[in-house]
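User: Could you go from structure to sequence for me? I need the amino acid at each position, not a summary. Structure tokens:
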């Protein structure tokens, strides 16, 4: 009985530590991206009632397309992370848990150093959330 309790405790501790290490690595990854750009939403592709893909093009700033590939080579706990997916015609997409709030024409501003995604509609801020939630 005592041996099985100790074993379960050790397994639970390993799982919790692995989760914590994975979260820390995701935070490190986001901060290392160094993305700071604005874009205009072209399309919103809904996957569920709330979550979907935001397709946009960059209007200010620049995005190093190879940056995520280089950072992925350094990951230990999260074998592969991807914030942005590059499409044809200079379009980029990312996943959002609040995609239902986006409309074509909205502005999206991403600053990974500040872990911030901010959305504007007609010049007015309508939403902001951490990049980690993307």
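Assistant: Here is the amino acid at each position, in order:
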């Amino acid at each position: 009985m005592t041996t099985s309790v100790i074993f379960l405790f050790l397994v639970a501790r390993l799982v919790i530590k692995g989760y914590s290490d994975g979260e820390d690595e995701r935070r490190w990854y986001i901060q290392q991206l160094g993305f700071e750009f604005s874009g205009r939403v072209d399309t919103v592709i809904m996957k569920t009632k709330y979550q979907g893909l935001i397709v946009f093009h960059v209007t200010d700033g620049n995005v190093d397309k190879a940056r995520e590939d280089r950072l992925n080579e350094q990951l230990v706990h999260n074998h592969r992370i991807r914030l942005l997916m590059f499409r044809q015609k200079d379009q980029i997409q990312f996943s959002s848990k609040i995609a239902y709030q986006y409309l074509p024409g909205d502005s999206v501003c991403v600053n990974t150093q500040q872990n911030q995604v901010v959305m504007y509609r007609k010049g007015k801020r309508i939403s902001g959330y951490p990049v980690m939630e993307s």
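One structural detail worth keeping in mind: The first strand starts at residue 36 and ends at 46.
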